[in-house]
Design brief:
The longest helix has 14 residues. This protein has a single domain, classed as Protein Transport Mog1p, Chain A (3-Layer(aba) Sandwich). With 236 residues, the chain is of the alpha+beta class. Helices cover 18% and strands 37% of the residues.
């Protein structure tokens, strides 16, 4: 079950200060969010996922064109290309993205939407939003520091050993997004994951997706497609 997590990100230091740390108020964004770590599978479920016969993959990962780094097509364009992805367009919440055909929507406390593979429990995508007074993701600091704080304090349970592999900034239609790759190691499995974050509409948006390390090579193209499809939509 998701638990409430207090996340403090400030300026370029982006530390997670102790209660006695002196941090200028004008540089501090302190928010309470529901932990976005994917629902931890039980040991039995994780073991079953790792040892179950691998089902035939229904779809091949859609390669993201280099041009997408500059201008992303609408999610419907990803889905319409070959029918291998399904679009999610929530104009009220202000975002859109796609997920692989066959994943099912599940309800997870504290998260806006979650879709997951019913056979491979570590394969999922989740999105969450929290209010913020910031107007640009760059106000929180550089990509590596922001991503590292999120990975350690929000996107992974405290019992897991995390490693930030890469973090970068991407400009889409004049809006800054931070995208990053990381691993989270538990005693009986390792999840290889991707995330993307941005600020818009007075909200801090976080989308995270991933798979088991065992299936990363087969899934990484599809997971990159999910992350690259995420886009802020104009409210209606």
């Amino acid at each position: 079950m998701a638990t409430a997590t207090s996340l403090s990100l400030h300026g370029h230091g982006l530390g997670l200060p102790s209660p006695t740390a002196k941090t200028p108020a004008r540089r501090l964004l302190s928010v309470t969010v529901r932990a976005m770590a994917p629902p931890n599978p039980s040991k039995g479920e994780a073991a079953a996922a790792e040892s179950s016969p691998r089902r035939q993959v229904l779809v091949a990962g859609a390669a993201v064109a280099a041009a997408a780094l500059v201008s992303r097509p609408a999610p419907a364009a990803f889905a319409a290309a070959d029918g291998k992805f399904m679009p999610v367009i929530d104009r009220k919440a202000g975002y859109s993205f796609v997920y692989p055909f066959g994943w099912q929507e599940v309800s997870v406390q504290g998260q806006d939407k979650v879709y997951k593979d019913v056979i491979e429990p570590l394969e999922s995508v989740s999105i969450n939003m929290i209010p913020t007074t910031k107007e640009d993701i760059r106000d929180l600091g550089p990509p590596d520091q922001v991503a590292d704080a999120l990975v350690r304090k929000v996107l992974s349970p405290p019992t897991q050993k995390t490693k930030l592999i890469e973090a970068k900034e991407t400009d889409i239609d004049g809006r800054a997004y931070y995208t990053f790759e990381f691993t989270a190691q538990a005693p009986n499995f390792t999840r290889h994951a991707l995330g993307t974050i941005t600020i818009a509409n007075g909200k801090f948006y976080t989308l995270a997706t991933g798979a088991s390390e065992r299936r990363w090579d087969k899934m990484k193209d599809r997971l990159h497609t999910i992350v690259d499809s995420f886009k802020i939509e104009t409210k209606v």
